[in-house]
Amino acid sequence: MKITISEVHQHIGEEVTIGVWLNNKRSSGKIAFLELRDGTGFIQGVVVKNEAGEEVFQTAKSMSQETSFYVTGTVREDARSPFGYELQVTGIEIIHEAVDYPITPKAHGTEFLMDHRHLWLRSRRQHAVMKIRNEIIRATYEFFNTHGFTKIDPPILTGSAPEGTTELFHTKYFDEEAYLSQSGQLYMEAAAMAFGKVFSFGPTFRAEKSKTRRHLIEFWMIEPEMAFYEHEDSLKVQEQYVSYIVRSVLENCKLDLHRLGRDTSKLEQVSAPFPRITYDDAIELLHEKGFEDIKWGEDFGAPHETAIAESFDKPVFITHYPAAIKPFYMQPDAKRPEVVLCADLIAPEGYGEIIGGSERINDYDLLLKRIKDFNLSEEAYKWYLDLRKYGSVPHSGFGLGLERTVAWISGVEHVRETIPFPRLLNRIYP
């Protein structure tokens, strides 16, 4: 019977066949221990010479790392293994013998591993991170589908930019100017006026020359937009959504979190509601923590966000930023127009901002003024202004950066490990 490693718990005591690769091996006298993987998981194969026979035993001992083969054996429970099962091997059928696999069990430098990213993905650590990424994506669809959202796909090539063009990749679209999208938000606002509650999930691009552990050139965003939702309504959706995906990872990725050595006690504290502080309060808090140089009206950097997050056990919302440092489309606070109805959600443990969101301007004249204030093309945003001419309503939305969220939940230090093939400032290979 041919099965996968993820299915072995259904076949205890049965003889099965699994297509695998050899991840690692060791031998002790007349027993060989094979670390096997098949893409769905990892399992130890035990080859006992007296039981499997001389030929199978010698094949097991001579196989090289990443050799592919069909392994046959009996599934046994193994309380010593975090996985809980092992395979008592009785047969091996070689498919392809790998020679001189470059990523050996010894330590390698980061640049070497990144040059071999196409192979590094096979490792236990990278496998665990990608499984957690996949679970976050699965839970995202589940959350929004069960809360009445419709998935809409915005374009990747755009003729305008939601936050200006200084950090966009420019290209020619036949005889017109175009950019790789830095956000699908504006299009999602149009979709919200047609479907009420919508979300998108897709790649975005930022031509930002940053080398920090939080930045990628190409990354993926989840961007919901909601008609008839004001700022406070949106914050509730955000904290419910983040709580949901954290809980889903805790429930469905226990083994992956264990492999990464993640302290799950910190994740178990993540449940709505989340603490909230205003930008004003954040400035005061930073001054108390020794950041005396930060002035009102300046944006926060990574050290500031980390210092703020250290005061809380859960993700924290920083609300009501100065309008001057936020994008043109954010709704000013009616009681205090110099700040906008927005929030950044800062993850604990130094992972920084994972969500940015706001209530959107719904008044035509105010939006037109903001477009002019930002020296943007009125013609390019004519369609966006139309949304305020024909049945405008209060509406809000936000964007969650997938890779930063994966880094935080999985506990890895750098976002380059949270996407299959990272695009960095000096890296577009492989």
From TrEMBL:
Catalytic activity: tRNA(Asn) + L-asparagine + ATP = L-asparaginyl-tRNA(Asn) + AMP + diphosphate + H(+)
UniProt-listed Enzyme Commission number(s): 6.1.1.22
Coiled-coil stretches: none
Top EC class for this record: ligase
Taxonomy, superkingdom: Bacteria
Record's subunit section: Homodimer.
HAMAP family listed in its UniProt record: Asn_tRNA_synth
Protein name as catalogued: Asparagine--tRNA ligase
Gene name of this polypeptide: asnS
